[in-house]
Amino acid sequence: DGDKVRVQLFARRRGAEPEAEVMEVLENKKRTFVGRLQIAKDYAFLVTEDKTLSNDIFIPREHLHGGRNNDKALVRIIEWPEGAKNPLGEVIDILGKAGDNNTEMHAILAEFGLPYTYPEKVEEAANRIPAEITDEDRAGREDFRGVVTFTIDPKDAKDFDDALSLRKLENGLWEVGVHIADVTHYVKPGSIIDKEAYERATSVYLVDRTIPMLPECLSNDLCSLRPDEEKLTFSVVFEMNEEADILASRIVRTVIRSDRRFTYDEAQEAIETGRGDFCEEINTLDRLAKKLRERRFAQGAIDFDRYEVKFEIDDKGRPLSVYFKESKDANKLIEEFMLIANRTVAESVGKRSGSRAAKKTFVYRIHEQPDAEKMETFATFVRRFGYKLKTDGSKNEITRSINRLLDDAKGRPEENLIETLAVRSMQKARYSTENIGHYGLAFAYYSHFTSPIRRYPDMMAHRLLVRYANGGRSVPKDACEEECDHCSQMEQLAANAERASIKYKQVEFMSDKIGQVFDGVISGVTEWGLYVELNDNKCEGLVPMRDLDDDFYDFDEANYALVGRRRHRTYRLGDPITITVEHANLERKQLDFRLA
Q1: Are 181 and 233 in contact (CB under 8 A)?
Q2: For the chain, how are helix, strand and coil distributed in percent, rounded to 5?
Q3: pLDDT digits (tens, 9 = 90+) for 105-154
Q4: Residue 406 contacts residue 303 (beta carbons within 8 Å)
Q5: Are 105 and 209 in contact (CB under 8 A)?
Q6: Contact 264, 272 (CB under 8 A)
Q7: DSSP code at position 202
Q8: Distance CA 473, CA 361 (A)
Q9: Phi/psi of residue 228, nearest 5 degrees
Q10: Model confidence pTM above 0.85
């Protein structure tokens, strides 16, 4: 998997996919595999669950490097001899005992080729960066240290990369400052820290830990906008009236001192009760954010308001309970101001109208229009639940129709399913130098600027803004596009690893519930069985086709259904169903159910 090869195409068969034969392997993808070591007297194997490799890896004893039976290990293939059934490999790293929480989390990262340790040299380089802010650092920056400023973040956050400030101006307008950690002041292009950050391209958020993009002394200390500490920031400052109309804005480097660190719950309490520190400022920002939000949806943004599955975890990493994190007013307040800051930054470079100069290269966050065929299929599916979805007409009409559908499904058993399918029918947002706008947000220009501690494209955007503000020439587009592609790919890998860690914890959480009965909803239909998502905890498992033994079932792809040949019993996507938990396989991150 991942090798670069030269192929010869076979003669084309009518109505069939093109077929070919591999003539030569041009470039081997240097791939590593994660699995469990099984050691015999004279040899060993790595038993892997990797679906891209059908054979276990044979490991000569001299290449075990201290690995013991049942250890989880990271192995690379050194050769695959002609005629041999198994490739030969050597152990690169021992991850630990299978089943141990730390081992399993590292194994998930290694599986996706993501780093699970931080190089000491990079840590050391970061520790050498001077912490004190000098007059030279402050020179040329706007001073916001006397303006009411605070951060609002999740309760377990350590890296605060954005803060908001608010003051009433003499002209009666509100000045709102969106202040972002000035990471690129400390991380210079081409430095060892920068190279490591680029390779990672993003922080990775697993169920029980964060794998940071930057060394912790930068992300949690030097750049983190902690209260009562002077910090260097890059800011977008808005002047707004009571209707949240933006009458002026500027992008400037600043120095701030945050007055208070709020958790989302504390800010939410200030919004709901009207009491507490800076509650007047929080409520003013909330009022403005609601107007911005209302306007955004009126202009055709899509309202994906999904909850996140979270786990209450003990000190050994075992999941004790599952809960759902919902987005409340405090979350939405931060979201709206980050969105307009990101949009303003993208417009400042991309929207230069009237200028004859060629457009300067910039990093955009783009989101294409949904695939017409996928939308049609989705519309057919929701019709079965009695919902209507418009798939032709103007962009605004279609998005209004999607929002109406999501609203109507709120609180209904099929809500999560419809949201999931709506997301699947959309394209994936990505980074590019070619601006085509952001469909989901209904913005003609959009970038990522507000999270440089955890995303490399934001650091790229910061550097380009400084370069262009100083009259610098446009950077070469091709090299920048390559960096955008790399960041998009790494973002996807990080999301996959995050999902795998949630899946692992769900299986672990269900492993002591074998034989128990749960209500759920059919969340996937395939030729090998039915996927069922449980109502209580959103854990998903498979009812294998072989267990549907009352009839012979055919897979009806067009209608997302399994249909019995004799009795015509039908299992459809979205149908309520009751199951018994049959088996929990942690190695495969897989739950098996049977019909109750």
Answers
A1: yes
A2: 30, 30, 40
A3: 999 999 998 999 999 999 999 999 999 999 999 999 999 999 999 999 99
A4: yes
A5: yes
A6: no
A7: B
A8: 9
A9: 60, 20
A10: yes
